[in-house]
Amino acid sequence: MTRIPIAIVGCGGMGGRHLRGLHELYASGQSNVELVAVCDLRYDNAASLADDAERLLGARPQVFQDMAAMVRAIPDLQGVAITTDTASHHTVACAAFELGLHVLCEKPLGLTMRACNRILAAQAKSGKALSVAENYRRDPMSRLMRALIDAGAIGTPTLLFDISASGGDRIIILPWRHDRYRGGIVLDAGVHNADMMQYFVGPAAEVYARTCLLESVRYRNEERTNLTDFYDRWAVEIPPSIEATAEDTLISVLTFEGGVLGQWTNVYAAHGEGFGRMVVYGSEGSLRFGGARNGRPLTLCRDDGGVVSGEDILSLAPDFCLDPLTAQLFGGERLASYECTFQEADRKLLAWEYHEFAACVLTGATPEVDGHMGRKAMALCYAAFESATLNRPVALQEVESEATGAYEADINARIGL
Ligand SMILES: NC(=O)c1ccc[n+]([C@@H]2O[C@H](COP(=O)([O-])OP(=O)(O)OC[C@H]3O[C@@H](n4cnc5c(N)ncnc54)[C@H](O)[C@@H]3O)[C@@H](O)[C@H]2O)c1
Questions:
Q1: What is the CATH number of domain 4-135?
Q2: Of all atoms in ligand 1, which is nearest to the CA of residue 173?
Q3: DSSP string, 206-233
Q4: CATH fold label, 137-340
Q5: 3-25 burial by CB neighbour count: b if 16+ within 10 A, else e?
Q6: Residues with CB under 6 A from ligand 1
Q7: pLDDT tens by residue, 123-162
Q8: Residue 150 CA neighbour count, 13 Å, CB half
Q9: What is the per-residue pLDDT for 304?
């Protein structure tokens, strides 16, 4: 199998997770990529990822601190995975396109809508592939949810609720997720929700939102989460407390192009009981999503009190069939649930993303989440920020075209856009 030479740019927590994804893909026997380099402004981060790669993949990628130098040293390099923190996505992605590289970029595509649009313009000029690493939708349970909705299992979709509350006053992963100028948590995590809602019921048209910063001082989180293992190396760099500048609370009403009405609430500053639910209602029933990377079955409820879950749900989506690589990685073409740890599921989804990216490079096909789709997810978040700033409903089209940009103006100024 042809394996395209690629590099990881950004060797922090997500860079480490991408490496695990590559390890999974190598182990599947289906790898169409080869990790030949790693690059980070911080030499220690890049060298440490190269050490891990040598242990996991059997060969040590070359280490760089500068992408141009990397391309000079490895002229046949074809693509980069951008796993730098969000504020630098546009500079790194635009530079990569100018260097003639294909790009797999972590979500959110850019820090602002203008940053996204700069990336899209650079991609159009280069003619290279751009795939956005929206991992949640690649989960077999997300695929099943979409297949059930498409098959009419709940009739015509009418309402969507995506509501969650957690977080308290703890620092979420790293301090930059509370910094408005580096990609606050409502954007960083909310963009996943924005992608998933639109994956399930189609493009959103308009948002009316309130956002706020409830916890302006955040404290180091001493509790371990699913992600802690990936960030342990940098734990000593997290101060005991930080001042937050990015919103941690979003409450909104959505209108989708297909007529579905939605309520989207993500609170990352809720004390006490953690809460989260995503449900789509239709003319004949409701369908509850159990989350990505946990393998939990979906739950379908009907007006007659009938509840369908587990294997029985598959009969309502007769055409549902996972793609061959997902089926191989998760162990079946028609899964109604699966048993994996978070880390196992996480790396399988990343393996899939790399495989799809390289297949698109090799065949010229368009990635499932291309730059425009990645921008749509960003636009839902930014339409909410703009709505809260302007105190009126905001259309996604307004923020995508930059006709409205009151909220992001000072962020753009800060990052030189
Ligand atoms: N898809 C997901 O589930 C998921 C989960 C976590 C993070 N992410 C995304 O991945 C990205 C990285 O997040 P993270 O948690 O790994 O951040 P991080 O802070 O742990 O790592 C970022 C790394 O990028 C490096 N870097 C910054 N600017 C650079 C540049 N211009 N060139 C080269 N290296 C540079 C930093 O030195 C650091 O090593 C973010 O955009 C984040 O939103 C996605």
A1: 3.40.50.720
A2: 15
A3: EEEEEEE-S-SEEE---S--TTHHHHGG
A4: Dihydrodipicolinate Reductase; domain 2 (3.30.360)
A5: ebbbbbbbbbbbbbbbbbbbbbb
A6: 9-15, 39-42, 45, 83-86, 88, 91-92, 106-107, 133, 135, 173-174, 188
A7: 999 999 999 999 999 999 999 999 999 999 999 999 999 9
A8: 15
A9: 85
